[in-house]
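Researcher: Structure for this, please.
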Amino acid sequence: MLTQHVKLYVMATFLSGALGVLAYRLVDLQVIHHEHYLSQAQSNTVCTIKRPPMRGQIQDTHGTPLALSQPAKVICADPTLLSNLAPRIAQVLAPLLQTNEAFLTERLKPRLLVENGKTNISKYAVLKRKVPLETWEKIRQTMSGLSFGIDESKLKSRERAFYSNLRSKAIFAEEDQIRLYPGQRLASHVVGYVSNDEDETGLSGIESYFNTNLAGAPGWRKTELDKRQRELVPYRDEDVAPRDGQNVVLTIDEGLQNIVESELAEGMKKHSPISVSCIMVRPRTGEILAMATLPNFDPNHPGAFPMEDLRNRIVADLAEPGSTFKIVVVTAGLNEHLITLNDVFDCGMGRFSYAGRLLHDHHAYGLLNVENIITKSSNIGAAKIGLRLGDDTLWRYIHDFGFGERTGILLPGEVPGIVHPVKHWTKVSIAQIPMGQGVAVTSLQMVMAMSAIANNGILMRPMLVNCLQEPNGKVATKYSPQPVRRVASLEAIHDLIKALKTVPTVEGTAVAAHLDHYTVAGKTGTAQKVENGKYVQKFFSSFIGFFPADNPELCISVVMDDPKDGHYGGEIAAPVFHAIAERAADYLNLKPDLAPPPAQPPVLTASAGVAHQ
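Model: Predicted structure, token format:
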């Protein structure tokens, strides 16, 4: 009887202890470590699927896409399903992915992954991003039909399952997109390019400046999976759609951009400069219709080009402007009523000594009136007008024309230029600056200054973006022309335009810029380059002109950096301006303001009686 009681006591004690341990374990699971185990359980069954937005387009003014995104795939692998067949799979995928076989073999090897203090074998490896949909379809078909040289019907069910999983699950794809630039190099410095990663961040041009607008906002889907990692749709908790990026519609006209780039290529071929640039502006609005620099690059493959080719020299590079800058000092003199076009200056037969420095003209000019100082591009004449103005007045007009500050163009990387305050000028600055020495400007600043002359004295902010559109085409933000300030009176501007009309004539420095059907007003520039603080025998050659001169539709700037076989702006840049202007006028169907030149009568030869044109 006693033994039976002892047994019952021992059993009760054992059961009580077991129940106590079980109760403790339940408290441990449900109370003490509840959050930890709940998190572990959810990590096995609940997942959040990122839903990336489609990046917006960059379009020209007519809606032609210059940059767009298309659906693509990220090709991934589960190395745990490959066993020792990774080299075989790499061999099959390498030609389809156009990727090194050894690289794929390495990516397909199982790797240890440490998460929350636990070590697991990673089931995820990215093989390649930005893969076109048609390539993924080929991969899927290739994997499903993959043969391993064995009779799988004789294998055990577990082994057959291994090969089935390998074909259907080992290689899989996730959603991605690929950025495409249909025009390839066309307007590449304006459009820019994106990073070649999952985020596709804009790295230059419009892609960078408007990256947030173009990128949109990602969505997500929070859902549960079964043990085979299939979605259980009824248990989907959240489903937030992505917000696709906005489209950026430019003022650039693809047709005019093509004209500009093709003519710059001809100039590049003829003179082999370090670079050649062109900007085409509509003066009354400040709209940029074309902007190009050669050499350029293909934003589809930016890594294939040297870094200097990726730089937009029009907004990022500085140089002394040379004689195109004379428009500033002459405008100032006319507006301050210190000179008229008929006032005469002694240009000293090409030599003028001031403040211990000898200034030169490219020809030995004697007496020139102000109009002829522009026509002949006399450095000495401009210097003497500057002396009449004085330091403070000249500096004020330089500032009013927009030099020494950023124009505010909607592009990254713009520099403000260099215009020293008067207190830092040397004694000779007042004579050198009027001829375009001692200041540094961008090509964009210079063409906007000339466009202010063409726009009756109103300086405009350069306008590169027309509007931002929602993906459905609805306008989200509309940009309008922005006047900055008036730089001079109408009377002074009209007098200057009268002088600028004489430049593209036989008496002027740019007869090659003359157009048969349109009156051109413009100015040449031939600026010596500075290297290591000294002037060298290398030049920036430029011509900036607008037409029709009395009702301007276009202002065009052409600049060459260190051209060969000549260096004067009228010989080097003016012919390129002429070619671009003629084609642009025809493309836009601009109304001529000049009568066509009379037709030449045929020349008859007595011997043959044939007309030679």
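Researcher: Any notable elements?
Model: The mean pLDDT is 88. The radius of gyration is 36 Å.
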